[in-house]
Structure formats: structure tokens, C-alpha cells
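It is worth pausing here to work through a concrete case rather than discussing structure prediction in the abstract. The textbook approach is simple: state the sequence, then state the predicted structure, then interpret. We follow exactly that order.
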Amino acid sequence: SEEEPKLKYERLSNGVTEILQKDAASCMTVHEKFWLWCLCVYVISLFLLQFLALGTHYGKVYLLDVQGNITQKFDVSPVKINQISLDESGEHMGVCSEDGKVQVFGLYSAEEFHETFDCPIKIVAVHPHFVRSHFKQFVTGGKKLLLYERGWMNRWKPSVLHEGEGNIRNVKWRGHLIAWANNMGVKILDVISKQRITNVPRDDISLRPDMYPCSLCWKDNLTLIIGWGNSVKICSVKERHASEMRDLPNRYVEIVFQFDTEFYISGLAPLCDQLVILSYVKEISEKTEVECCARPRLDIVQPLPESCEEISSDALTVRGFQENECRDYHLEYSEGESLFYIISPRDVVVAKERDQDDHIDWLLEKKKYEEALMAAEISQKTIKKHKILDIGLAYINHLVEKGEYDLAARKCQKILGKNTELWEFEVYKFKEIGQLKAISRYLPRRDPVLKPLIYEMVLHEFLESDYEGFATLIKEWPGDLYNNTIIVQAVVDHLKKDPQNRTLLQTLAELYTYDQRYGRALEIYLTLRHKDVFQLIHKHNLFSSIRDKIVLLMDFDSEKAVDMLLDNEDKISIDRVVEELENRPELQHVYLHKLFKRDHHKGQRYHEKQISLYAEYDRPNLLPFLRDSTHCPLEKALEICQQRNFVEETVYLLSRMGNSRSALKMIMEELQDVDKAIEFAKEQDDGELWEDLILYSIDKPPFITGLLNNIGTHVDPILLIHRIKEGMEIPNLRDSLVKILQDYNLQILLREGCKKILVADSLSLLKKMHRTQMKGVLVDEENICESCLSPILPSDASKSFNVVVFHCRHMFHKECLPVSNTVSPVQFCNICSAKHRGPGSAILEMKK
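Step two, the predicted structure:
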């Protein structure tokens, strides 16, 4: 079954086995008690002590420990023991037998009660607190239910609690409540008030009560579970409201759950909010087609208001089940440890809740290894039987057996952890089954690190069958995991068979890099034209190794190569690069062009060479080069441009050499582009050029139109219009004349606007100057004469003195100022006037 059982079972053996070989079990009770054990003055240990009391058909009572060992034996009667009862202290026991004997005695004291009745006594129950002097009570029953109480002079006084409804079949005492069952139903009595609270009639009266006895069980002090036939009732004892009492008991019973089962009930026990039910089963034999006894069942059910939900169901193989009746089975339980004892005449079976170890056992049995591993990890502090590592190793083996090699290898990371011995063992196991590739991705690379032989073994496996996988491992694994020399030699041997294999060559370059043999790695990278070559050069400063490999680098990636060379001019000089590229002028041009873009002066000695290179390989950048360069020879450049008939470049060179008229003529004759000619004339701003342009254009109507449209702001259009021959047809003449007039009007408007702005600004500045000149100027002892450099104020203030202070804040003694030669009496600051006239003028003025 895929559903995990809730309970596990084992037979109670040792002394029980010996007892049941000669005798048969008739009843049993379980007792558990907390004991305090003082280890020292300050340490007290609390533990649960449990023992069993087993009654037999031959009238013996045995006290047993939980392993079934006999601790005490009592010969009570020669006939069957019907019931055994223990108080909560476990110090007093009540026993009744089929021959009418009732005994209540102390297990550890001389206290004892004996009584023999004239009928079989089926039940006995001592008060839960019998150990206390004021609770010395017990009940017993055959045809009557009698309550015995110890009174004056230690005499026992019986009183009849109930009679007249047949034999009493079962009794359970909890707290102040006694529940018993007779032939008619179940009654509950409040011992304190001596009031009977309720009567729960049995449902199926067709069943003999002696063959199918009632099962009673107190879940707690106020909840009673009743099982009779195939019916289950869960009853709750509740307090009655004061207004409802009248002549009624102060308590009442409410049936909160009621349902029927498939089989007859032999015993009941609570399990948290669920029920454990021991069922007696009958089935039809396939051979004889006669109804016979089947194996009893132990079911766990969840009570519902009118039904129940089955949680688990187990058929129990007890000895002699074929001969047993419903009344032969009993179910006792231990509340503290959730232990359930199934008692039959020839066997006692213990059922206990499965713990996490049992859960893991079941998962392993069902080969649910991953769930078992997860359960072990969650409960690693509580499990006792299993180890996480053992479960993990079993899981790996299971996956390998199923052929799920990759998953098995992946689980190794988690399960093996840092255990190098286990890792190496698993690697060899994968090697034996030919699956080293599967585990290669998951091998540890740091903390822990395995023996180099392990990694070398994996690399050799890949090298023999998978070059790409081999290359991937070399990239991913640190070079110190294995012996690099051994792997390099292995790759070299394979390259002898396939010397052009790019994967092996690239991997060999990486191995050389790990081994710091950068020169060999660089050669391979260049041969392969690999993108990492520049990174390798930068990272390991291999510029000395590439001095004679510049052409190869440029052929591979000229842009990256040039950037690298220019960034490291101190390591590889410009002259060296140009020399290396002498036979590859197209690459030489790329290098020099980028050098010129970075700095116009660094490669000035090669500017003459660059003229030819631009002309040959990059004409669009020739003219910008000629404009930006201040070091190229113009005559050489003009010669090359004229040879190649580069008109624009020739025009620029002629104009730069001062031959503007020839340049203009070339534009007009070669290019025949009036707009460019006009633009050139505007740039030169030479009247003679405009005159030449007009003379050349006067007999060419399209040129006249272009001039009329563009020269209005540079040359008087009237000069051109007067020279136009009468009758000449000029395209778009009207539009051109309208444009001239519009341009003229625009110039007038601009002049008027500028005039207004000038006047407004002048007035504003005049006002500002006036306000400034009206302000006073502070003259004190700190000021000096700008001519003689003595204090401006005399030391003797009583003497008269004259001081001249200009608005520029310069101050002079009047006698220090030069005498003005002009008729006007207005004087000017000698210092400020000198600034306008030029250097030395102030000195000259002072000499005068």
C-alpha cells in the first residue's frame, strides 16, 4: 500500500510468552505514574514508570514491566480473573474472579479486603484516589452494583447502587463519576451526590451481552466513549443550569458524536481527537463457505457528528485468532506514551504511534529516498535510528541503479558535503560505470579540494571523447586542481593527430596561460585570431612579445590593435609601429589616422607620408586632415592633389597658399558650382575676387541668378545689374530682384533697430555714469598720491592743501599733476589716460 500506517506493532514477549504457553490471558490493565528521583541535593529527575497487570484463566495475576518481564505474581483464584483495577497511585489493586471472589489489597502494604460472593463477579473498580484515607471506596458487581466504603473501625460498608437489569458487564471510574454497563445499557453515577445522571440504552438488543460485551473508556473527566456491538457513542457530561434543576440531577449527559462501524467492537481508546477501535471480524471462508473468525482489526477513525472518517486500518495477526470470540479481545492504553495493548487469550500485541524513525523506515522501504532525506534533515535532532549521510548514500545508489546519473551526481554535492573520502569513493564508482562526465560538473573546486588524480582522471575522460566538454572544464576549473604539465602533454599528443583542431588549440593556450607560458599562449591566440588575445596582452603585460606581431594583431582586429598600441606608446613607440607596418600601407594609414585624431602633433614627422596614404585609402578624410594639420608641406600636398585631380583639396591648398584667384577660377571652371564660388568669395572677403566672380558670371544666366540671390550683403547689387546685357534672359530674375529688395528692407530695419538699441543703451549708461559721479569719495590718511606716492593728506592739517580726486578713484596732489597744454581747463587722470594711449605714455606725461 502507498498509504503509510499510523501505528507500528510488536508482541509483548519475555515473561508474557512463558505465561501464555501454559495459561490464557483474560484481562489486563495498564498503569503509568510519574516518579521523582533525587540524584543529589539540587538535581531531581522526573521519569514515567509504567507497569502492567495481567489476569489469566487460571486465576493468576502478574505484574509486568513494559518489556513483559514478570515482577510479581499473585495466586488469587483457581478460576478465571474477570477484571483488575488499580488506583492512580499504583499502590492498590482490586481483583475479581469467576468464582465470586473479590480482593482489594495494597501492593506495598498489608492493607487487604477479601469477600466471596455466591455468584460470578464480573467487575471491580477501586476509587482513583484510593490511597487517600477518605477515598477508601471501590465498586464491584455481578447481578448488583455494590459500593464498598470503609467506615468506623476500618469496617467496610456495602451499599447497592443498582440492580435488577441483569449482570454488570463493565465499569470505569474516573474522578467522581462511575460508568457501568448491564444488559440494558450504560449508566453514569455521581459518587458525591449518589445521583444517577443518565441511562444510555444499547442499540442492538439482538446481540447477547455476554458474547458482545460493552466497551467503556473515559477520554477525560467529563467525556465517556461507549462502544457496543457496532455502535459508538461519545458522551459529554455537562452541568445543568440552576433554573432547570427542579428535581433533576445537577448534571446531564449529551451525546456529541454517534456512528456505526463495519465490525463488532471489542475495545476503544482515545488518540488526541481521534479514536482507536479494536474490532472483531467475521468472514466467509472461501473453501467451506462457512462464517469463521478473521484477524481482528485496529482502526483509527476521526469522529464526525453522524459518521466517522477512517484514518487507518490494520489487520492484526494474533495467535489463535481463528478460535477467539468478540469477548476474548480487550484494548487497554497508556495515555502518556500513546501505547495500545491488544489482549487476546494467547497473545498480547503492543501498538504504538510511529515516530520519525518509523516514518523514514517506511519511506526507504517504498524507495522514496528524497522524502526520507528531507524528513531526516528536518528531524535530525530527534531521530535515533537513522543518519542523514546513510540515507543520502542510499539515495545516490538508488539513482545510479535507475540510470539517473546526472541527478545522482547533483545530489552528491549536498549529501557528501566536505567529506573528501566519500567524494573520491563516489568518483571511482562513477568511473566504473562509465559516467565520469555526469559527475564532472559537480566536483568540489574549493573547500574541499580532492586529489589532483581525481581531476586528471575526469579531464582524460573528456579528452578522449569530448573536446568541447574538455575545453569547458579547463575554463571552469582553477588551474591548481590538477597537474598542468600532465594535461598539457596530453593535449599536445592529441594535437599531433589533429593539428588544426581549434578547440584543442584554444584549450592549450589557456593551459599555457595557467602555466605562465604567455608567449606560447599568445602565438596560439594570434594564430586562431581569438578575441581574448588583447585581454591576455594587457593582463600579463606582453607588449615586449608583440613587437614583431603588430601586423598579425592589425589583421585580426585593427581597431582594437590601434587602440592598444596608442594606449601603450611608452612600451611600443610610434616609430616602431610605423616601421613594422611599412609593407602594409593600408594598416599604416589606419594607425596614423587614429594617432592624428588623438593628437595633431605627435606624428608630425609622418604628415607628409599621410598625404599619400589619405589620397590612396581614405580621400573623404584628406581635406579635414589638410585643414587640421600644421605640419604637412603644402607644395607636396598640392602636387599630389593636382596629380589625382582632387579639385576640392586643390582649391583649399591654393587658397591657403594665397592664390585665391586661381582657386576661384578652378571652382568656376572645374566644379561650375556658383554656390561654392560665392561661399569661397565670402570666406576670403576680397573685393577683387568678387570682381572676378562677376566678370566670369556675366555671360552665364544661371550664375547671374545665383549672384543676385547671394551677394546682396557683400557687394552692391547695382554693380552686377548694370553689367547685365540687354535682352539677356535670366531665370527667376523677378524673384531674385524681389529678394534683393527684401534684403535691403531687412538691412534698413536692422539698422533702425540697432540704432534704437544703441541710443537706449547709451542713455542708460549715461545715467548710470551720472549717478556714479554724484557719489562722494572717501579721502583719509591711508590714500596716497598716485604721482609722488606720498600720503594724500598732509601731516599738518593746519596748512592749506589742494587735492584732485578723479571719478576713477585715483588721487593726486594738485601740484603733482602735469600742466595741461590745452586751452580747456578740464583735467584727466594721467594713469587712466596712459592706459588708452599705450605703454610708456604715462611716464612721458609725468616728465612733462
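Step three, interpretation. The longest helix spans residues 733-774. The two ends are 131 Å apart (CA to CA).
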